């Protein structure tokens, strides 16, 4: 008999016949990417709810009763839910969760999301269910955050069969790639470059740096890092003015953006200027550029390069 590597708590053994319970393998909880996913989501919730003076510290303990999820959804969807404000009883909490989750399902189902949570799992403080829900909300509402990709955890499933406890290990995938979670499966040349030709990627980056500096140098500005220097949108806006030969009024954008919202505003505004100049709407999202997603930034700059490479 080899001892089990999983500590099964006494309450987890009090199962009815054929009932099952899941718990995360303790080793998975220590995985840096898993910890980062939780931290990014907690920071995002607190950022969204800053005006509500709500501070989330632990997802399972702070979200199970539906109160924080209600406020989060109301803020993200910009609508008021018809639920009681404060509910102490378990029945009241579950009724609130039911309303909140039905609203979430109405939003997500048309976009093909697989629903991996329910009232009982959220109220039962099942961290896996809570994470699936939050990842789906963050993606659906295009949260200005960068979720770590390819996060998986080992889950122990305990099931009671004929009076005996049986345990099984399964791998639960919490995130894939940002593009797959966004549902954008069309691959392009940059996907191929990133996957198969990192040496050629450097050649493309150098060409784009030369191109943007040829114009930004007129304002005594210099780009050395494509990943970071376009993330606040300022250089993108100024570059569009230089390429199209007009002055962009300073009240149209934030010259020294401080918040993520201001940066997203700047990049969105730059995208509008690009479309005004006859370019197609960029495939990238403004949030991706703000979140330092190099592939998205390169796509945007390459579009500019293709149209304006002969502009002096």
Automatic annotation (TrEMBL):
PANTHER family hit by this protein: BETA-PARVIN (PTHR12114:SF7), PARVIN (PTHR12114)
PROSITE patterns referenced in this protein's UniProt entry, alphabetically: CH
Gene Ontology process terms (BP): actin cytoskeleton organization; establishment or maintenance of cell polarity regulating cell shape; lamellipodium assembly; substrate adhesion-dependent cell spreading
Which branch of life, at top level? Answer: Eukaryota
Family (UniProt): Belongs to the parvin family.
The record's keywords, sorted A to Z, are: Actin-binding, Cell adhesion, Cytoplasm, Cytoskeleton, Repeat
CDD domains, A to Z = CH_PARVB_rpt1, CH_PARVB_rpt2
**Which SMART domains does this UniProt record tie to the protein?**
CH
Where is it chiefly localized? cytoplasm
Q: What cellular-component terms does GO give this entry? A: actin cytoskeleton; focal adhesion; lamellipodium; Z disc
Q: Which Gene3D superfamilies match?
A: Calponin-like domain
UniProt xrefs under Pfam families: CH (PF00307)
In this chain the Calponin-homology (CH) domain maps to: 35-142, 202-309
This entry's Gene Ontology molecular function terms read: actin binding
Q: Where in the cell is it found?
A: Cytoplasm, Cytoskeleton; Cytoplasm, Myofibril, Sarcomere, Z line
InterPro entries per record: CH_dom, CH_dom_sf, Parvin
Give the gene symbol: PARVB
Q: What is this protein called?
A: Beta-parvin isoform X2
